[in-house]
Amino acid sequence: MATAWSWAALPVLLLTARSDIVDKVVGLELGADDYLTKPFSPRELLARIRTVLRRRRVEVHQGRPEGVRAYRFDGWELNLNTRRLASTDGRNVPLSNGEFSLLVVLLGSPQRILTRDQLLDLSRLHNDEVYNRSVDVQIMRLRRKIEKDPAQPRYIKTERGAGYLFGVPVETVYC
Hints:
single chain; 2 domains
């Protein structure tokens, strides 16, 4: 499934030999997110790319979204205040901290592909001992709890080579 995006959402890093301050100011005022003059080291370029991407991550936020009380999808409800997931028949489905955090991130970005690294960073599952494949284990556990057939998931879909996406519409309930 293709997701909608805009050229305006792409970060811009200018790489140029023009080092005059006027050129830098004009480039930044025209919309560049950063400006790097030649010669530069590959390490500096990589650091600047990471910084620009970190600043541009505005569509998905880490942790609990401000002002959001709950998410609803297909008869399910995840209450962020009580940290409870209610199934379509009203029973509470217990979630580990990791499962809860991961589900909050997925529900906050429905119909959007998120990489394993994004899911780790945004769900705060990241520490020195966590590998990006641990997301797969958390996804598998979540699927067992919310999917009718975890082998044919309807909610948490795998986008081969890209990551995961929450595949049904989500309603946001505000405080």
